[in-house]
Description:
Structural class: alpha+beta
Number of strands: 4
Oligomer: single chain
Radius of gyration: 18 Å
Helix content: 40-55%
Strand content: 5-15%
Mean pLDDT: 84
Order of helices and strands: EHHEEEHHHHHH
Amino acid sequence: xxxxxxxxxxxxxxxxxxxxxxxxxxxxxxxxxxxxxxxxxxxxxxxxxxxxxxxxxxxxxxxxxxxxxxxxxxxxxxxxxxxxxxxxxxxxxxxxxxxxxxxxxxxxxxxxxxxxxxxxxxxxxxxxxxxxxxxxxxxxxxxxxxxxxxxxxxxxxxxxxxxxxxxxxxxxxxxxxxxxxxxxxxxxxxxxxxxxxxxxxxxxxxxxxxxxxxxxxxxxxxxxxxxxxxxxxx
Length: 234
């Protein structure tokens, strides 16, 4: 993501974009309707990040970005970059086609909270780290071992982020929890990648019942369920 052109937007004047010089060099740049809609839909989560003191910048890429996730997170120089890659990107409409219109705002918040989970892990110095009492599965071949460990680490991070998204959903959209949980499971099933980076179903199944979320601290409650899922996902 580093070095790419981008437009940066501050959140309520408190989240400053590291690449503001690029934004200033494009004074005529404007958000598209899709970008405005998705930014509005994710805004509650972005405000929450500000209130939590997370070092988060919002980046809207003006160049065509086919093949990229519409929303993603990068971590650069100690700051989280919440990146919208929506222009010339068929995945935007493909994603919207799988979301019931009445669930759009809540789903966008779930997606944003997922990325916020990544930010929290980066900022906390826990990225790819296992909790105490859990060891990395080892392979006998060195190259295979490195590849396997990387896949497992990415999968764990995606699982934690999914659980943060679900914890947010239960806290802020409790009547919709079952439908949004089903949407997330369908999204992960759609990938058909057993053991891959987004094979987080073992964790998602632990969160089928919203009552699993026993407190208001979304990162802590997600972490507790994430640790439980490490054994279930083996």
